[in-house]
Amino acid sequence: MNWAARLIGGRFHYGWLTVAVVFLVLLAAAGTRATPSVMMVPLEHQFGWSRATISLAISVNIALYGLMGPFAAAAMQRFGVRPTLLIALGTMAAGVALSSLMTHPWQMILIWGVMVGGSTGVAALSLSATVVTRWFTTHRGLVMGILTASSATGQLVFLPMLAAIAEHYGWRQVVWVVAGAAAIVLPLVAFLLPERPADMQLRPFGEPANTPISTTVTKQNPLAIAFGTLAMASKRRDFWLLFFSFFICGASTNGYVGTHLIAMCGDYGMTEVQGASLLAAMGIFDLFGTTLSGWLSDRFNSRVLLFWYYGLRGLSLMYLPHAFGIDFFGLPLFAVFYGLDWIATVPPTVRLATDAFGKESAPVVFGWVVAGHQLGAAFAALGAGMLRASLGTYTVASMISGGLCLVAAMIVLRINRPAKVPEPQAA
After folding, report:
1. Is the pTM of this model over 0.85?
2. Which residues form the domain of 118?
3. Would residue 101 count as lying in a domain?
4. Is residue 211 part of a domain?
5. How far apart are CA 5 and CA 330, in angstroms?
6. What residues are paired with 237 via a beta bridge?
7. Are 92 and 116 in contact, with CB atoms under 8 Å apart?
8. Which residues contact 335 (CB under 8 A, 6 or more apart)?
């Protein structure tokens, strides 16, 4: 990596190049995670699998994606970011390619649920939190917003293209494209991603010049780090407030809209490409919304920001069933309103976790919070599929998801509140 540092010649801090590499990794992982939503209808038509069966594989994928977070963050502390990512990306590419051979539901659960779900869980929000806390002292909210927005950009880049490939050439060609994208980022990680600023003889961006360069590397077992941090954090109310609010966040984004929106559009006579294009449009707005959210979280109260984010998301989900009946402005209005708010919750949540638990513990604590996010997403992916299979419509699922968001809007106001100091009584 020293050759890369010499190439940029000190014109900008190497931390920004690290952000660019991680952005591309998260971009490929986001495209991989979005792929099952494109495959849902083709698999239903080719094999006769029900949406509840396909949703089960997706829910396993989403759950493992989240549960890997704290262990991935701990492994990055113990073994390093680069080797952990290289193993995960290799597993992801191999698993996606292998899925082109599947013909039975259990194979989809094993490959897309276990293999792909576990590997994408390494290239996730806990990776972003680790990179941000290691490489930046200032602008953390902004950088977290940029990295979080890569999920939206992944949908923007992949979904319409993948939907068109699935429509014209079949779902097997889709998995080869996604496997290739995962393989492309492997050499970037191998040659351009250092472990920490000290490896480049640098301080974190924004660190005072007189601060000693830290070279501390933990030798503790990753499982001990992950479970020890959980034991510490679970004794505090703030952790559970963060966990359950992010559970609802996952249920109302990846689990419901991210998994079922394309299929929902099909219920109203729209093609897969039109449904994917709607998700991509939401991704464009979320790219701006999440980046702006990171900038705002550096300047304003994160609790108040989260209150508005969850409240507005809840209202937009309650509006969604009615949007299909409005000729011109219905779905575009939902795409703008919901898209700006999709994952804008991440930067303020990371900020609150860092403020509550400290810089060193925050990535692993946030990994456990992300586990709650993905458990909520798995719950919604399976639950919405079952409701659709039994009721023939997604309306009830939309209302439940919107109502949960309104509950989360109230929960977040209690996170990391300063203790009230009693006023002295007059003599």
Report:
1. no
2. 2-196+222-414
3. yes
4. no
5. 50
6. none
7. yes
8. 278, 281, 282, 285
